[in-house]
UniProtKB/TrEMBL annotation, chain A:
Residues 1-34 form the signal peptide. It holds the Pfam family Peripla_BP_6. InterPro entries: BCAA_transport (IPR051010), Leu-bd (IPR028081), Peripla_BP_I (IPR028082), TAT_signal (IPR006311). Keywords: Amino-acid transport, Signal, Transport. Belongs to the leucine-binding protein family. This is Leucine-binding protein domain-containing protein. PANTHER family: LEUCINE-SPECIFIC-BINDING PROTEIN (PTHR30483), PERIPLASMIC BINDING PROTEIN OF ABC TRANSPORTER FOR NATURAL AMINO ACIDS (PTHR30483:SF6). One of its GO terms (biological process) is amino acid transport. The lineage of its organism: Bacteria, Pseudomonadati, Pseudomonadota, Alphaproteobacteria, Rhodobacterales. It comes from the Bacteria. Residues 38-400 form the Leucine-binding protein domain.
Automatic annotation (TrEMBL), chain B:
GO terms for cellular component: plasma membrane. It comes from the Bacteria. This is High-affinity branched-chain amino acid transport system permease protein LivH. The keyword Transmembrane helix applies. It comes from Pelagimonas varians. GO terms for molecular function: transmembrane transporter activity. Signal peptide: none annotated. The lineage of its organism: Bacteria, Pseudomonadati, Pseudomonadota, Alphaproteobacteria, Rhodobacterales.
Length: 426, 287
């Protein structure tokens, strides 16, 4: 064998060792005498694992934010550099808490942000609350965020804030969509035994009560275990009650199993509106022809009449930018991930003292910002520490070769234009 | 009629579980190897099927022509290159290595195929059904059950009517003496793993047609496979089919009572059988 590495000579060893010894002195000096201080933002999201679809646009969004903030932020006439440190929760709540603690205690971030489902948002917010670090989160209905963290209405939390919509908005937009269709008011409910499924199926806080008030008959056979291989009993129960609408909150593999079995066993509902499973174009594409006509809630779309407060890009430009950069269709979390950093930048500009967590929290509390997902203002929230963004309902319809999510019901947020009409299935 | 429907649908579901379990049963029977990565190998097969169908545009069932031999080769290489080194008196090293394999497979698939749910497009087969005596039976579940029966019959025939089967049984009974009699047990183990992963390939493709899959769902499928193997009796292939059917029927009948009990009643059936007959219903090997 030939020798690849040279043995270090005495002289080169001495040079290297001296440099290594001297380095910390130099480095600490640069930090202490830096002309512009740095604001550190910690970011936790599920980059890998079952929730990875929510975070697929992270790199695109964060690089856009970094570009917009490349010149630094102005706070009280002083310029601050912004550094975003992003960590992966691996779709695991324990891991999310761990990396949040790491960001707070190890990287000593000034603000921590997190997005995508209670499994990411809640543990991060809990860590921030314990350590009194300002925290902003999004992309999780507010009930699992607030009640899942044992929040007390009227008291709320000291340093953690959240913006998104709630179950009442989902229910409202679903009813809005079904109401205009004229189908029989008999609804089959598919709720899994997980945090979302139990919240949606909750007799008081979930779908059953408002549906009954609106005159719908909800057939809810019970909670199934996620990753179920068989829905025959649900299908039999729905057929027996003549359900023309199917709703619920499912993960994509469960919906695919249900939807194939429904066809095999001769159950053909006219409207299928499912939360969570039908958010992503990739899921609809995987269902092929049977994906046409399914409906879902819409938190954000390229047609939302909002634009970024940071880059002044419109919703359309942001979505198309992602498609151009990645070659993949837009997804709803892109807007919220962008808005999250918009709020952070706005807070950082307004805070009276960026060195003081309490001043940052006060600035968050005073937010009134028009973001790419709508207005964020914690003074108008339904409950402490929560601000709501508008929600509409949409249907996947074939548009040329691809499936497009058309907005078909908007009575809760008429400023978001309709882009299509609800078509019945079958 | 509803109850009959639940039982029939459960039996068909049992066919899928038996396919998940057949590979596990085979390798446990031959080399006492508990493969924790089995669920992820099923998902790997589904992804291979996806690659083949998107690259060539052929029907997923025809993709089996490519995927089965590919998985078999992977199995042989895996066994000879890695798992043979871990086999010995201790059960723990192969357990740990296959657990590591499972983690590597999941993350490898995530890196290559991303977290998007995928599905194998089988056209009309996915939703086709026929009516028998007032019941609607899906063509795909019936096909899955038939394939499960055929695969188990094929494996059973291989075991008892071929020279290879004799070699399998010999190394299973006593490795050292089989070696003395001129059988190369390392090669036999490799062939057994190749056969097991060939079956896994069929299970993976059928799973991919039945539902959508992503890199993380393998683990959830593993447990049903294990339960079917243990209910049926370790190392007994027909027992594995029976185990799968018992598990499937227990699940659908449980779900008929209350959907929350679907998975639970499968586990309860498993625990009852484990309590009454710790070696399973039809044990071939005394544990």
């Amino acid at each position: 064998m030939t020798k690849i590495f040279k043995r270090p000579s005495r002289r080169s060893f001495l040079t290297g060792a001296t440099a290594a010894l001297a380095a910390p002195a130099l480095l600490s000096a640069t930090r202490a005498y830096a002309a512009t201080p740095t604001l550190r933002i910690g970011h936790v999201s599920p980059r890998t694992g079952p929730l990875a679809g929510f975070a697929e646009a992270d790199d695109y969004v964060i690089s856009g934010i970094e570009k917009a903030l490349a010149g630094g932020l102005q706070n009280n006439g002083k310029s601050w550099n912004v550094e975003i440190i992003s960590k992966d929760s691996q779709s695991n709540p324990n891991r999310a808490a761990e990396v949040a603690a790491d960001l707070i205690l190890g990287d000593e971030v000034d603000i921590i942000v997190a997005a995508s489902t209670p499994d990411t948002v809640n543990p991060v917010a809990d860590q921030a609350e314990i350590n009194e670090v300002p925290c902003i989160t999004t992309d999780c209905p507010w009930q699992p965020y607030f009640f899942g963290r044992n929040g007390v209405p009227g008291e709320g939390f000291a340093s953690t804030y959240h913006f998104f919509w709630g179950l009442e908005d989902v229910i409202g937009s679903f009813l809005d969509m079904w109401g205009q269709s004229g189908v029989a008011k008999s609804v089959g409910g598919l709720f899994p035994n997980d945090a979302d499924g139990n919240a949606w199926g909750h007799p008081e806080l979930g779908l059953p009560k408002p549906l009954a008030e609106a005159g719908y008959n909800l057939v809810d056979p019970g909670r199934y275990q996620p990753l179920s291989d068989d829905f025959s009993n649900y299908i039999a129960a729905f057929k027996e009650s003549g359900c023309e609408i199917v709703t619920g909150n499912m993960i994509a593999p469960d919906f695919a199993t249900f939807w194939a079995q429904a066809a095999q066993q001769g159950f053909n509902p006219k409207i299928v509106t499912i939360g969570k499973a039908l958010l992503f174009p990739s899921v609809i594409a995987s269902l092929g022809e049977r994906g046409d006509g399914l409906s879902s809630e819409v938190w954000w779309s390229p047609n939302h009449p909002f634009s970024s407060s940071l880059s002044s890009a419109s919703s359309k430009e942001l979505a198309e930018g992602y498609s151009a950069a990645s070659g993949r269709p837009w997804t709803q979390p892109i807007g919220f991930k962008h808005a999250l950093f918009e709020v952070v930048a706005d807070v950082a500009k307004r805070a009276e003292d960026l060195e003081d967590p309490e001043a940052i929290v006060a600035a968050i509390n005073g937010t009134n910002l028009d973001t790419i997902v709508g207005n964020v203002n914690w003074a108008n929230g339904p409950i402490n520490n929560v601000s709501k963004t508008p929600l509409v309902a949409g249907q996947w319809q074939k548009d040329g070769d691809a499936m497009d999510l058309k907005i078909v019901a908007n009575s809760a947020a008429p400023n978001i234009p309709l882009t299509g009409e609800l078509n019945l299935l079958g | 009629m509803d109850w009959l429907n639940a039982v029939v649908q459960g039996t068909l579901l049992g066919g899928l579980y038996a396919l998940f379990a057949a590979g596990l049963s085979l390798i446990f029977g031959v080399m006492r190897l508990v493969n924790i990565g089995h669920g992820d190998l099923i998902v790997l097969a589904a992804y291979l099927g996806l690659t083949v169908t998107t690259a060539t545009g052929m029907h997923p069932l025809f993709a089996l022509i490519v995927v089965v031999p590919t998985m078999a080769v992977i199995g042989y290489v895996l066994q000879r290159g890695l798992l043979n080194q871990t086999l010995g008196d201790d059960l723990l090293p192969p357990l740990l290595v296959t657990f590591g394999l499972s983690v590597i497979l999941q993350n490898g698939l995530l890196e290559i195929y991303s977290a998007d749910p995928q599905k194998l497009e089988a056209g009309a087969l996915e939703t086709a059904s026929f009516a028998v005596g007032g019941l609607n039976l899906g063509v795909l579940p019936v096909l899955t059950f038939a394939v499960a029966v055929a695969v188990i019959w094929g494996l059973q025939w291989t075991f008892y009517h071929t020279a290879l089967g004799r070699a399998f049984r010999a190394v299973s009974d006593n490795q050292d003496i089989a070696q003395l009699m001129g059988l190369n047990r390392r090669h036999i183990f490799g062939v057994a793993m190749a056969l097991a992963l060939g079956v896994t390939a069929i299970a993976g493709i059928l799973l991919g047609i039945r539902t959508s899959f992503d890199p993380s769902i393998g683990g959830g499928r593993l447990i049903f496979g294990f339960e079917a193997v243990i209910i049926g009796g370790l190392g007994n292939l027909w027992g594995t089919l029976a185990g799968g059917v018992i598990l499937g029927v227990a699940q659908t009948v449980g779900a008929k009572i209350d959907p929350g009990w679907q998975v639970l009643s499968g586990h309860i059936a498993f625990l009852i059988i484990l309590a009454i007959r710790p070696n399973g219903l039809f044990p071939r090997i005394s544990a």
